[in-house]
């Protein structure tokens, strides 16, 4: 079996669902169920013996060794993290705790477990760490996209904490020989995305007649990656990645935030027109910019394409349409998320 951490979050739950759809190998899912963890994402596998869910912290130095010895996973895929830049600006401590200290304790638990495996299991074992393009800092309009050798220059407490965790993972390979792999991906979007991030927030706000908040001038650029493409990249790196290497994963979809939201509005105008016949674009509202807002991220995903033969399947246009349709067709999921802790966060951030 494999151990997935953070498997009740946005990307982790998509990964678990895809894994169980494509493989008979079981998943042990360790997630603390913070505000971002939502077991409802995995309700289709509630009674599936191939999915074992454990509520717990990656930094728990009693629980994690016990789980490793009981279930003997052949791989760990580490999604667990605090992941929202704005939250890291309001309160960085949880980010240091989970992303840095938690990853450190997880690495220690895994190192001890791995050291006791027999030679074959030791050779076959993998620790795959899921990271972000934000560790590379920000780009100007004409800069080349981030490659795996771009120096780290994180600008937010979130990206700094992820950078620290990446360095620890790297060091555990270099120093102890732990068989690690790291992926640095761009902004994901798709089903089960918690509505604090730009795309799901604007989708839900649009449908609820609320404003669509654009930070600053709305011209910040992100490189959008459909979450299922990200999951397939992780499976590929897990199966074929070179030990100790990092792989950048991107969608080759650089878009300015305002263009992203305009596209969302146009798809909604077509699929669920406003009653007054106006475009959802009238709800776009420019608000105060994020402090230290990174201007542009762009991933050069040539290495993973050349070395591992992975390419994204979705363009932004096809992926965003699928995403809008998913949200329209999954109103109960949306309602449950909106009635939870998310509301308190909304008040703190926007009111
Ligand atoms: P998310 O916030 O939706 O989910 C994180 C999950 O981790 C939640 O289920 C949460 O309960 C769990 N978690 C948090 N702290 C934990 C702890 N101490 N122990 C165990 N579980 C804990 O995040 P996501 O968007 O799914 O991101 C997953 C990973 O991908 C993160 O490492 C993130 O940095 C990285 N990433 C995300 C994006 C993106 O666009 N979402 C882009 C690049 C990289
Ligand atoms: P976000 O989804 O928070 O991801 P990240 O900060 O990790 O890139 O934000 C994506 C972009 O959208 C980023 O440039 C900030 C911007 N943004 C807004 O303009 N308004 C919003 O309400 C949010 C949440 C983000």
UniProtKB/TrEMBL annotation:
Reaction(s) catalysed by this chain's protein: dTDP-alpha-D-glucose = dTDP-4-dehydro-6-deoxy-alpha-D-glucose + H2O
Listed Gene3D superfamilies: NAD(P)-binding Rossmann-like Domain (3.40.50.720), UDP-galactose 4-epimerase, domain 1 (3.90.25.10)
Metal-binding in keyword set: no
GO MF term list: dTDP-glucose 4,6-dehydratase activity
Swiss-Prot/TrEMBL cofactor(s): NAD(+)
A GO BP entry: nucleotide-sugar metabolic process
Pfam families linked to this entry: GDP_Man_Dehyd
Keywords carried by this UniProt record: Lyase, NAD
Keyword NAD appears in the UniProt entry: yes
InterPro entries, sorted: dTDP_Gluc_deHydtase, NAD(P)-bd_dom, NAD(P)-bd_dom_sf
Residue ranges of the TM segments: none
Name of the top EC class for this enzyme: lyase
Domain NAD(P)-binding: 3-323
Domain of life the protein comes from: Bacteria
UniProt EC number: 4.2.1.46
CDD domains, per database record: dTDP_GD_SDR_e (cd05246)
NCBIfam families in alphabetical order: dTDP_gluc_dehyt
Family to which the UniProt record says this protein belongs: Belongs to the NAD(P)-dependent epimerase/dehydratase family. dTDP-glucose dehydratase subfamily.
Protein name in the entry: dTDP-glucose 4,6-dehydratase
Encoding gene per record: rmlB
